[in-house]
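Fresh eyes needed here. Have a critical look at this protein's tokenised backbone.
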Amino acid sequence: MEKVKNSILVVDDEAMNITALSHILKQDYTVYVEKDGQGCIEAARELMPDLILLDIIMPAMNGFEVIATLKKDEATRDIPVIFVTGLNNAQDEEMGFVLGAADYISKPFSASVVKLRVKSQIQIINQMRLIHNISITDALTGIGNRRYFYTQLEQEWQRSMRQQTTISFIMLDIDHFKTYNDTHGHLQGDMVLKETAQIIKGSLARAIDKAARWGGEEFAIILPDTTMEGAKLVAERIRETVEAHAFVIDPSTTTSITVSIGINCNVPKRGADYTLENFVSDADKALYYAKGTGRNRVCVFTEMTDDTFPNV
């Protein structure tokens, strides 16, 4: 698989500078270009480049105003900016760093200096991204971990509250997983967890849908802007795919597993007594009910026929 290149947005009102910088960087990076400050701001929000090379002296909106705007916007504030400018006095350089610039390159620039300064920033970006990805990923399954997932869930709950949209939450548990581990061994059990995680991930059609390992053999899914019927379709797709999947024990032997799934849907109301913790707890109750009433099934909290839970 071809390695995805880091992306750089070059912003300068002089075509000659854009051409030169693009030529210097295009072999190693994906390069986007803009000719003014407003174009930079719009492109940064749309493209989310890894790095911005920004001129200071531009018509209508100078580079200092552009970086100030970028740093105020939650979506773009973490994109590092290197000023590439003819302003080379100490006061201008200091102003750039005060406003949040990562580095400062003076014109006329050297190709080797540009490459080295850009490479240094890209290495920092990639290292930080790697550390971040490790911190939010479950080491065994490769999908999100519970801590990061709950942060995402809180954000989606608040967004649903502001916009008054439905949010759905799915909890999933592998049936009789302890028995499977005892029968086939923990390495085989780990394989089941990994493959189940990939089935769940592959069953989510939208980038905004998030899955995580909740703990042990439990998984959780956030479905923003999704009704109960939509959530049931996703849950049934996962349940059916897992049941049909052949888990390989050895070259001549396969086995199958099933999962039980609980769903809860809600439109959060500001100031209401029903909290995110209640929302998660009720999804867990639906999961417990699904397991207690036969396993290998999907149960929606609001469709439970009574408030007692059979023994699991």
About this structure: DSSP finds ten helices and twelve strands in the chain. The chain has a mean pLDDT of 93. Residues 111-136 form the longest helix (26 residues). The two ends are 45 Å apart (CA to CA).
